[in-house]
Amino acid sequence: MNKKKILQSVLVGTSAVAIGVGIGVPTGVASEKQSSNVDINDNQNTDNPNIDDGSSSQEQKFASAPQQAVYEGSINWGEAKDKDSLNAYLYSKFHEGTSQSYDMVKDLLENDNEFANVEVEYVNNSADYEKSSFEIKVTPIQDYSWNDNTNASKNILVEIPKLDKTEWILNVPQNLSYSQTIEGKDVKNSEQLNSYLTTNFNVSNLNLENDNLDIKLVENSASFENKNFKVAVTPKSGFAWTDGKTGTIQVVVNVDIKAEVVLQKDASFATGDTYNLSLDVNYVTNNNSFDNYLKTNFKTIDLEKYSSYKNVDVKYVDGSANYDNSQFKLSITPLAGHAFNDGTVEPKIQVVTGGLDKNFANFDTKSINRTSGVFKNIPYIILDDNKNDSVTYSISSWTYEWEFLRNLEGWNTYWSVSTDNGETWERAGSGKSVTVNKTMLPESGLLIRYEVEVKETDISAYGISSSYVAYISNPVKVLN
User: Is there a contact between 471 and 453 (Cβ–Cβ < 8 Å)?
Assistant: First the structure.
């Protein structure tokens, strides 16, 4: 009686092999065991069709991968110092997120013997800098499956034990100095210097630009004789010294202690000073133009009591001009090494009042046809603003006498300019003010004047209208 030959495939790990007559052993399988139970008839007939020799068995192909893997190489702070840079680094290492056969990336992973018949792909944005890990996606290659006969992709966590999180290597600070000068009158010994620093020490005064250190004053470390003190410096989290250590180091800081100066109390000036000044109203007519004049010409003003100003620096206080009251202010400061009689060195403010001759005589009405009784007040040119590149003039407010206004049909105003010192004039515009670009001034200089042209109905002439220039101001030379 013929008996059947029984063949059995045994699964070991995640790979399987069918053992039988005529069946080849597949290559590339991580581990295999072969086992068969065979019942053989003493009078075996190989021609008996009822005997199964295994030739009909199909080869099963399995893929394998560990549940967790380890990254092989080291990653230092220059290559990755946060989540984004770590992700970019790994994305590049794993062929920029494309799926590759395991052989293409096996040098990156330590678990070499646990991967078989799979493709590996980096999971973009899976990098976790804090946990030193990332994920890869593994997928069985074509015609292979997991040992549970599925072939869906799986994500595997990969640890990075050699991720160096020391982002910066710090040099120990050398030759530190303290930028704030300490007055000798405040500090005369080490005890006073320590007390001063305890109250006033500020890290920003150190010539140290590195923001990766915690810096504290070492109390009672100051030496008045050596003009120095100490600070304790400690690398912040994620930083270390060049030797890899992160402990606190004390560093000497040099400080400038200014020698005490004995001030001479001989700085003086006379209070209630006055001045006499005659100004051309073509140039100075209000606070703004008076202020501009003083900014430029203060040093030329003759103060009545200037001889009493000793060991002081005298300056005009910008914006203090008062045209109506003929006043302005001075700032008076003792020179170095000097003080006022009360021992102070802070500037003192002096109000100067004087006789400001506001010379309106320059503006005479120019008679053309008729001007008598035309104006209640005659308009005049005012210097409004004098800048580096431009100067602005305007015309003062003006009105007509009522009797003239009664017959007035209208008027026009013009600004005229002359480049030949008043020989010829050309109208250049209208309006209440005019601004001149200094960079465009001709070498011969520029004169401006203001004109008023009126149109009047002459009742005695049966309502006939006539136009004429009623007023022309004196010319003003534009400041350069």
Answer: no
Cα–Cα dist 283/295, whole Å: 14
- Give the separation between CA 451 and CA 3, rounded to whole angstroms: 138
Burial code (b: 16+ CB inside 10 Å, e: under 16) for 121-136 equals: bbbeebbebeebbbbb
Distance CA(421)–CA(64), nearest Å, equals 103
DSSP structural state of residue 28: S
pLDDT one-digit tens code per residue, 401-434: 545 555 556 677 889 898 888 888 888 888 888 8
> 194-249 pLDDT, tens per residue?
999 999 999 988 988 767 889 999 999 999 989 999 999 998 877 788 777 889 99
Q: Which residues pair with 16 in a beta bridge?
A: 11
Percent helix, percent strand, percent coil in the chain, to nearest 5: 15, 35, 50
With a cut of 80, say whether residue 390 has pLDDT above it.
yes
Q: Which two tokens stand for residue 89?
A: 């680094």
Find out whether 202 and 180 touch, Cβ atoms under 8 Å. Answer: yes
Tokens describing residue 10: 């045994």
Alpha-helical segments (H) within 321-472: 402-405
Q: What percent of the chain has pLDDT over 90?
A: 24
Residues 6+ positions from 357 with CB-CB distance below 8 Å: 276, 277, 278, 279
Query: Is there a contact between 464 and 409 (Cβ–Cβ < 8 Å)?
Result: no
Q: Is 152 helix (H, G, I), strand (E, B) or coil?
A: coil
Using CB atoms within 10 Å of the CB of residue 79, give its burial: 0 to 12 exposed, 13 to 18 middle, 19+ buried. Answer: middle
pLDDT, one tens digit per residue, over 28-67 is: 333 333 333 323 233 444 444 444 444 444 678 899 999 9
Residue 113 CA to chain centroid, in angstroms? 54
CA distance 72 to 309: 84
